# Entry
Amino acid sequence: MANNAIFARLSNLWSGFISLWVSDVEKAHPEIAYQNAIASMIEKYTQLKAATGAIIARRQEITARLDTAERELASVAADLETALATNQDDLAVVLIQKKNTLDAAIAELRADATQATADADNAKDSLTQVKTEIDKLKAEKDRMLAQMHSAQARLKIQGQLDGLSVDAEVQALGAVRDHIKSQVAQASLGSELRESDLDVRLNKLRQSSASVTAKAQLEAMKQARAAAQSAPAKTL
# Structure
């Protein structure tokens, strides 16, 4: 008993592994899972179609038997009227018995025909339902596979974008910026140092003094020239 229990557990464990493996394969290849489901539905549709055909054939056979019985009943009824009219009681008795048998058979055939018609209608409805399910499954397959391919494309693009590393380039650009700022600061510092240098300030002072001296000389020359121009007029 214990060995049987162990084998049963091992069998269940193996079945579980196989089920998980098949499930993973179907997730990786959903088109295969959809195609298998569609093939299964088509097989079911084919079997149901054959069964529906047999049911319809039975309904047609019952209907044909009913038509034959009803025609025979009409003939017996006519013969019975003739026998009654001609006072052939012996024939009338036989015809009445035949008529009763036909009435019973026709009642049974009508019940069978009603049931056969209902069975055929149900079978046709089931057939239509399975066909609709197959069409829906095909449409779902196309829609879901298109969504999967779109999602895979987006994931691939995201993966490519995630794989692009711009940190090194950005860091290099930051170093370049710092270097440029340092160069600008050094240039400004040199200019500031020159501005504060005593020799530079003295040279500027000398240049300013020379300019003032030149302007004073220019003014003196203008005054002397004006004085010279006014001197002959006083002599006359």
DSSP finds five helices and no strands in the chain. The mean pLDDT is 85.
